[in-house]
Amino acid sequence: MCELLAMSANTPTDLCFSFTGLTRRGGETGPHKDGWGVAFYEGKGVRAFHEPGASANSRIAEMVQTHPIKSEVAICHIRQANVGSVCLANTHPFIRELWGRYWTFAHNGQLAGFTASPGFYEPVGDTDSEALFCDILNHLRSECDRHAPPELVAETLVRLSSGYARQGVFNLLLSNGDWLFTYCTNRMASITRRAPFRPARLKDADVTVDFEAETTPNDIVSVIVTEPLTSDEHWDIYQPGEWRMWQQGVVILKGVTGSSGGSHHDTPAQYTR
Amino acid sequence: MCELLAMSANTPTDLCFSFTGLTRRGGETGPHKDGWGVAFYEGKGVRAFHEPGASANSRIAEMVQTHPIKSEVAICHIRQANVGSVCLANTHPFIRELWGRYWTFAHNGQLAGFTASPGFYEPVGDTDSEALFCDILNHLRSECDRHAPPELVAETLVRLSSGYARQGVFNLLLSNGDWLFTYCTNRMASITRRAPFRPARLKDADVTVDFEAETTPNDIVSVIVTEPLTSDEHWDIYQPGEWRMWQQGVVILKGVTGSSGGSHHDTPAQYTR
Question: Cβ contacts (< 8 Å) between B89 and chain A: which residues?
Fold first, then answer.
């Protein structure tokens, strides 16, 4: 299994606090020591850090914890390998270009025996996760228009996700830098922080942050994770089959597919603006 | 203009010494302060660091200088912007997946008014360099077989490169992690270090390395740059129109196209194993 972390914000925001909590689980407070990676969007560009080892004692992860990289969308993953060997090519998040934008993907779960339909995008490594990512992009490319609004892209993503969820565990983070799509089979929670900001304490490290001192009153910053990171805040737990599309720190579209995949008729789910 | 650095080695080798010299030119001993990036292959995986600012005073660049990341192929670039704004999306090296491998590209020069033929791969930023990279990949995808040996891939790359060279300055580094292709319009030099190893001194920083202490007698490590990095070694200067394909630290194929592009009949150039 693995753990996921994402951020959606309405102003460039660093991920130092949450990243510090998550990376402790990579070999210290958790067993996810087979790799870690994080991707930060900056405009249409993306910068990523990947390492095929434990994040808890990584010098590069330490640099990312203490060197604020500001972003409106970020995706992070720590890995405990099940499918695929421990190597750099199997380290999430995976990144591809589609329609002149970088798409970034991280996955928690396992789809035993998943086979992607042949297509343009091909996995480099041998994880089911990267094969899923390529499958999603191949479907989008052939079924969606490049100028499709988020509603239509979400419709395709929901349909694909509920199909994957019928085959196994599929907790998903996917972004094109503009929005962030999240899908939950069984483990996902979010928190939206906005004024009045309060302090918060990490579960996995003796670290407290006073968000009031770090933000302006207009900031809206949401964090999405497989497992809540703080011990003194209320996290909003996703239902099984729930998906949310985030932009600028808020949910712009959401819905629920049938539990554990449900029937095909549950999608497209009802949208809530 | 920009500066380029690449490495090809027969054993995983760090780039700390050369990278330290090059990054000084990013705002200290040289004017290339508009971004820097480096990509290290590790098996089929690649890890990259990109920043849209000066490398000379970057904390991330400092970490890369002092934290040995071992690789058999690496590509590095520091940028002085001409075409395209200063932003992360315009920062080399650019990376795309083709045939289940990551391809990495960095370019020095300028092709005013270059327009890529439409194709699958699209630039994310607005540099001529990234448009060139996408053009190369689109041609390879449609004209080469995925199982083509390096000789045939080189033939396509030489034909494309000499075409681009007729339109401007085109000094190129391109790799798929297996081999490294280099093409010189006007600025490129290489050095191959093997036993008996000697010390070397950087031009751009008061740094000396004793390669004897860092290597084994079987190591072969080649470094390719737009401008020699050391003051006390002999660098092999490329001729205009010269290309070399490197693998495991040695040249496996090379040739010369007509000066500044020459006629189309110069390609495919004569190969030398």
Answer: 42-45
- Give the structural domain span for B61: 2-266
Asked whether residue A204 is domain-assigned, the answer is: yes
In a domain, A272, yes or no: no
**Interface list for chain B against chain A, based on CB atoms closer than 8 Å:** 42-52, 59-60, 63, 67, 87-91, 95-97, 99-102, 120-125
- Report how many Cβ contacts below 8 Å link chain A to chain B: 82
Which run of H or of E encompasses B60? helix B59-66
User: What is the full DSSP assignment across B35-52?
Assistant: -EEEEEEETTEEEEEEES
Q: Is the pLDDT of residue A266 over 50?
A: no
Least CB–CB distance from A43: residue in B89, B99, B123: B89
Shortest CB distance from A47 goes to which of B88, B99, B120?
B88
Q: Where are the beta strands (DSSP E) in A80-213?
A: 94-98, 101-110, 169-175, 180-183, 189-194, 199-201, 208-210
CA A155 to chain B, closest CA, distance in angstroms equals 24
CB contact (8 A) between residue A96 and residue B91: no
Q: What is the CATH number of the domain that holds A201?
A: 3.60.20.10
Name the residue type at position A71: S
Length of chain B: 273
* pLDDT number for residue A208: 94
> Which sequence positions of A are flagged as catalytic?
2
Domains in chain A, number: 1
pLDDT tier for residue B82 given thresholds of 50, 70 and 90: confident
**Residue A253 domain-assigned?**
yes
Instruction: Give the pLDDT confidence of B116-136 residue by residue, as tens digits.
Output: 888 999 999 999 999 999 999
Question: Is B80 contained in some domain?
Answer: yes
